[in-house]
Fold:
Amino acid sequence: MRIANPIYDVVFKYLLDDEKVARLVLSGLLGKEVLELQFRPTEVQLEGSGKDGTQLLVLRLDFAAVVRLEDGSRKLVLVEIQKARTASDVQRFRRYLGSNYAKPENVYKDPDGKEQALPIVTIYFLGEGLECVDVPVLQINRHYRDLATGDEVPITDPFVEALTHDAIVVQINRLRNRRRTELERMLEVFDQGLASRSDPHLLDILEENFPEHYREVLRRLMRAGTEQELRDKMDVEDDILVAFQKEARKSADLAQALVVKDKALEEKDQALEKKDQALEKKDQALAESHQALAESQQALVEKDRLIGDLLRRLAQT
Structure:
């Protein structure tokens, strides 16, 4: 089966625009059943290249989700999804996350009618992931602990929940040949090792090996692969990437030229400094020579005076 490649922002967004599919994917990632889901439209963020010259495009999607907790209770959370080609510029991710913390509408009313800040869970899909962590799906959970005893505190508090957050990092480049769990088998749709040789916009997937529970994900991506408008937008995204990469190379070449120029100027400054030091030494030597000459002339004057005194005494005798 051939499906559209969700590494492309337009396909990724198309995938999660379907509420049923989005609930399936988020339930698998969160490890909690998503009961209700409200998509909050967020524009694609197109930004410049990363520090290493690799293009960094960030797609950000926000969902208000009602999840079922282990005890059967419900909890409303804000799920922020960020998808990028690389993880090279943390400040972009921090800025987007910070904007959600600051939005006044990200609140809910508790059973007492008191307004509380929505807890936030962040999910990062990274094309090129973390350097030192060889894990396809990394889960970061908070724990409340008594610092004195080290014991875990089995309750949560709205203050803490509002100011800290859990996170999940999906490393797309670590998915290859990792099919240990049903979740990893579902995430096979992101495995770039399955990209079609004839068309990188598509992935080749064996449907019989795909989890039955997540088949709707597969079908949604299969439909995306047949929509010409999406295919055209993938072409545009390729063009944008190429254009940004060219600009990145130009910037890198310019930066290198500036480094060479700065080095030449530095060497010139060093040569001038050495020349100034040589001139300073020469001036000092001349000054010392003039001083010695003046002292010699003074000695001759003193000698002439002594000779004159001696001649006068001889004449008197």
In short: The CA atoms of residues 107 and 113 lie 12 Å apart. The longest helix spans residues 228-316. The chain is about 45% helix and 20% strand. Helices lie at 9-17, 19-30, 90-102, 158-163, 182-186, 215-226, 228-316.
